[in-house]
Amino acid sequence: MSGKNWDRVPIDAQSIDAPLSLSAVFLVVTVASEQSALAKVASVLGELDDLVKNVGFRDLGGRLSCIASIGHDLWDRLSPGRRPLELKPFAPIKGAVHSAPSTPGDLLFHIRSERPDMCFEFERILLDRLGSGVAVVDEVTGFRYFDARDLLGFVDGTANPTGLDLPASALIGDEDADFAGGSYVVVQKYLHDMQAWARIPTPEQEAIIGRTKIDNIEIDDDDAPRKSHKSLATIEDADGNEYDILRDNMPFGRPGQNEFGTYFIGYSRYLWVTEKMLQRMYIGDPPGAYDRLLDFSTPHTGTTFFAPTRPMLQALVEDAQKQLPAAR
Ligand code: HEM
């Protein structure tokens, strides 16, 4: 271990490996069709780095970070003719019992900090800068719940890739050299039926998730009649190689409104991996044996984005600005 105090080091914009935080905001906006709105968005994306510094430097211990990700349609407006290989709109899924909708979104801002007030301040300034050319279509403030549990009571995020496995799972490599270091991002806002979940006994909940509830130990369900969430979300190729994604899910809710949710966010090197996880959850393996987590969790949004690296974002903005009217 070096003697460096990591708590005091600013986190660059677009850092996908930023640490799990106590607080997060997931902000999804659409961009109006006028060229002036696009020009404004390009100029704000160009200054994102400075915006993170302006708020983050006020308390480096707050560990503020922000990742801006761009949806398929906005990508084509900013950079016609040159796009990451797999980038496409979220494809809705229709299972026999449960469906995943596809919902609009041009930009996703994933804002994280140890301090809810820093997330709030950053979002406030960001929206103020973006102005009337964007419309907020979804805004969720998430929080860390005890030992990183979801509101169903299970520890969420344990199997995430760490160390060298993190870039290998979450960041594009040589297979798409122009976009290497970027990441595909899929988000879904889930609402839980807490009353129904509370009615089923803990061993059954554990079989659904694939881990024990209190001490978070993996349950081997190879011979179980029905695969758990953990097993359905495990993707292997014919040679037995596993493909992972990086999840930074956060609970959110308003007990007074009976609103209890999980904001799912997955960063992946290959979009097909996240899509395959969703297929297995909704269609089932074998088909029909869908993820029973969905009997208690309903997705209200579903959107795909691409998170460029910091230099990629700068280059994208500079190229776009050559074709656009100057932003006011
Ligand atoms: C594992 C919760 C949605 C992918 C887990 C675990 C929990 C959990 C508690 C076990 C601990 C862990 O390894 O993190 C949830 C909840 C969801 C949700 C509450 C929404 C209601 C999703 C979705 C995907 C996904 C939509 C993918 C598209 C995964 C993966 C694992 C996992 C890859 C790790 C599997 C392994 O052990 O290798 N999830 N999840 N989850 N989940 Fe989810």
TrEMBL record:
One of its GO terms (cellular component) is cytosol. PROSITE patterns: DYP_PEROXIDASE. Keywords: Iron, Metal-binding, Oxidoreductase, Peroxidase. Pfam families: Dyp_perox_C, Dyp_perox_N. InterPro entries: Dimeric_a/b-barrel, Dyp_perox_C, Dyp_perox_N, Dyp_peroxidase. GO terms for molecular function: heme binding; metal ion binding; peroxidase activity. Transmembrane segments: none annotated. Its cofactor is heme b. Residues 16-144 form the Dyp-type peroxidase N-terminal domain. It comes from the Bacteria. Residues 147-309 form the Dyp-type peroxidase C-terminal domain. Belongs to the DyP-type peroxidase family. This is Putative iron-dependent peroxidase. The lineage of its organism: Bacteria, Pseudomonadati, Pseudomonadota, Alphaproteobacteria, Hyphomicrobiales.
